[in-house]
Amino acid sequence: MIYLDNAASGGKKPPEVIFSVQNALKNYSSNPGRSGHNGSINTALMVYNARKTIVDFFGADNEQNVVFTLNCTHALNYVIKGVLQENDHIVISSLEHNAVMRPVTKLQNIKNISYDMASVSEDDDITVENFKKLINKNTKMVVCTHASNVTGKILPIEKIGKLCKEKGVLFAVDAAQSAGVIPINMQKMNIDFLCLAPHKSLLAPMGVGVLISRSKLNNTVLEGGTGTESLNFEQPLEMPEMLESGTINVPAIAGVTAGIEVLKKQGINNIYKKELGLIKYLYEQLNRLENVILYTKEPKFYDSVPLISFNIKDYNSFEVAEFLNKNNIAVRAGLHCAPTAHKTIGTLNVGTIRVSVGYFNNYYEINYLINVLKKYKKLKNCIDTIQ
What we know:
The chain has eleven helices and 13 strands.
């Protein structure tokens, strides 16, 4: 199977990550922070090392503020529901995933939270101005994706972060599509909350997310055992225990550390150049095919993450994706859990076919995809002529 659905999840993992997970299952299965024996202590030290690795990689400032969650959606819920209070206002982008839209809508219904949606332009300065116009005296936070999972567009996070700092509002970033693809420095970019999906471009396993917090949260979403303050029925206020109730996914966390080490060794810029080269080549080839509708602008360095959304005129995106699947190519069709983004690009009623490349993809696979798509069009034209 040629795997081109890396925006949903990295389909292959480096040997270093697989080994690290297996090693954790074998040697770090004691519950960290719950007991005083050597097994628990050693596991806790391994987890601490993972926090430190993450802090260093993303330019954060405190290992205690690295929280391990179930996934990136879980992390975004922690931030949105943990920061916003009655009658607060937030600003989001026009390209948001439902991981932002649904918790915001929930709070709109139960806490009278209001939000405005800033339109994302191809001109970054216009995008920043659109955010600026929507910030008012009641605005508590700006929440936006770093890169769209539909168009691939990278938002000007550093400029938006500077704006938030000037206006005195918090800044939360959904880095599901960007972490591991392009460099992120929380301090330089003035990011208060960074939410990660390690199973994508951080090359880690599923089942773990990360929230890095540089500002205080007001509320918790989950409460329970933390291994600390056991006589107190109130949730501890210290991080990370404030947000880490129950046992964390130690094997997956070990995989996060290993994935980051692979990225550091290979060089994140080198990986990005390779992936962007593949997706740019695909764009050029698709642009030559008759009746292919491209919804992604021509990929440019640090303007887009390595994915493309397209359709074949008059053909259903799911039908095309299924044809590709039968030819051993994995892509994704539909709305990609981001209806606001599809509304923005005019595909809310039809969705798109999304191709997203990753660490293990190559030019042979892209050429194979192009040839299969050509075969699909010829086949369909033949069937249409017979009918």
